[in-house]
Request: fold
Amino acid sequence: MRFARFVLVVQAVIMIGFSLAYWLRPYEMANLNGMLLMETASVSHMRVYYGGLQLGLALFLLWAMQVPERARAALVMLVITMLALVAGRLGSLWLDGGELIGFDLASLVYRVCAALLAGVALLVIRERSADDPEANPAAELQPNRIRIDDEPPKPFRLGDGVAPVATTESEPGPFRRGDPDSPPTDMPQEPSGR
Reply:
């Protein structure tokens, strides 16, 4: 789990750094991508989409790294997101006939490495022992079973049970069929005075 947390923290820090860069320096970040921001709306779009989206993903990664089940989901999301961005970049090169230079090449290498690291961390988490309570939180919920005797449990048969204990008080009689308002036949009936 340490390696998975390390991968998630590193990715979150990188995403927060890019988020701040897109918020504070949108013109420079757009120029790295070969774009010109001509209108206020395009500057706002750069800050909101590129900055806000990366900040949201970074916060999700930081939240997810606290619990192993959430960390698995975050790693899967990271692998899928990074590979989708790599596929988008390669598809764009193929469709547009461009070439990888500078920031685009560094971005592609970073995303491939991030996807590989997240995939390795995901495999490491899956291979962990089921006995480890941190890896398997359901194991903590299992009650400790203490047996008085070492014999295996015997099957239950109808009629088995604890022998009745003699008491001084009269016990209720067995259930009888018939009208529930009529008294049982073995009990004395009250004389009717009318």
